[in-house]
Amino acid sequence: MSDTLLAILHMCVFPGGAFALMVAMFFKGLDRRVEARLQRRVGPPLVQPWLDIAKLLTKETLIPKTACRPAFLLAPVFGFTGMAVCAAFIPIAGVYNGLFNMGDLLVIFYLLPIPAMAIMLGGSASSSPYGAVGFSREMMLMFAYEMPLLMILLAVAMLTGKTLAGGAWGAEFSLFKIVALQQQTGSFGFNPSMIPAFLAYLIFLPGTMGVVPFDIPEAETEIVEGPLLEYGGPLLALFQITSALKTFVVLGLGVALFFPGTISEWWPINLLWFLCKCLALMLVSLTLVKSATGRFRIDQAFRFYVTVPAALALCSLILVWVM
Fold first, then answer.
1. How far apart are CA 236 and CA 250, in angstroms?
2. Closest CA to 244 of 209, 279, 270
3. Number of other residues whose CB lies within 10 A of the CB of residue 321
4. Are 264 and 104 in contact (CB under 8 A)?
5. How far is 155 from 258, CA to CA, in rounded Å?
6. What's this model's pTM, rounded to 2 decimal places?
7. Within 13-112, where are the H helices?
8. What are the pLDDT digits (tens) for 254-292?
């Protein structure tokens, strides 16, 4: 099988595409269910995300007369394509080594902002004033949480490079080598120098997923969904699918960076172990946070990200440098 065909298979079937979507939709349903129980509500069924998508696909697609039609239609496709490709780069220890084996950490860093950029593109093209407000908020929030993410990835790459080079200066951006090293030496999540980076990544997750307390760009009670206000039908369904795929990507990336260990020689067991770790990461960093906090203002969110997680990630960078 040619490399091109194999790459398409990974993007469309496993670990991206169909597999990532099924896992992410299950996680979405479980997230809503657990959040409801924490708030003493019954909550929706686990299949509710699938029911929402199915309902939207039966609706008519309406485009505002004053909207920029090409950009309005392209935005959800742009976001979905970026996440479908990004999901194929996530390695699963003992199961799948990733789409490519060199520099893929940098590729993921450039692909992860695509859903936020798609929301900004759609909001600005909708001609809605709420979309314009959501656009500006999304842009500010993205700039805030991308800085600590870059420092987290640099800390992991530097630690991997120095370890592989025997203590000499270096940085390794291959996720395959990062995972392989942790299989030999132990997970970075237990390394004292990487604990601040892991905490920073936990804080990064709710911001990049746009959930409470960082759902400012789509705040229903303030700007009535903001950039997504004018979307409906299949286009809104595509945005929701993109959000689900991004959930799989950021959780899988967190596992690959900090806890990629395996527990068996049998790949189905390792796959199940990977999903369990993703689920634990989601419950800690997304579900519990959503259930216990209220929404930040955009200035509070921006100031928070450029101070707390940025300081934690910088601390890991310094520790990796000096140790």
1. 21
2. 209
3. 13
4. no
5. 11
6. 0.94
7. 17-38, 48-57, 69-87, 104-111
8. 999 999 988 888 988 999 999 999 999 999 999 998 888
Q: Which one-letter amino acid corresponds to residue 144?
A: A
Q: Tens digits of per-residue pLDDT, 145-201?
A: 999 999 999 999 999 999 888 777 778 888 999 999 999 998 999 999 999 999 999
- φ, ψ dihedrals at 96, nearest 5°: -150, 135
The DSSP output letter for 67 is S
**Structural domains in the chain (count):** 1
Give CA–CA dist 90/65, Å, rounded.
Answer: 40
Q: Is 98 left (phi over 0), alpha (psi -120 to 50) or beta?
A: left
Instruction: Check whether the bond before 213 is cis (ω within 30° of 0).
Output: yes
What range does the domain containing 118 cover?
3-322
Pick the closest to residue 260 from 95, 146, 110, 101 (CA basis): 95
Q: In angstroms, how far is the first alpha carbon of the chain from the final one?
A: 45
Q: Tokens standing for 168?
A: 């000499």
pLDDT digits (tens, 9 = 90+) for 227-242: 888 888 899 999 999 9
The C-alpha atoms of residue 23 and residue 249 are separated, in whole angstroms, by 11
Task: Determine contact, residues 15/88, Cβ cutoff 8 Å.
Answer: yes
Question: Exposed/middle/buried for 63, CB within 10 Å: 0-12, 13-18, 19+?
Answer: middle
CB distance 282 to 209 below 8 Å: no
Find all residues with CB under 8 Å of 299, minimum gap 6, and list them.
Answer: none
CA distance 305 to 66: 35
Place of tokens 């509710």: 48
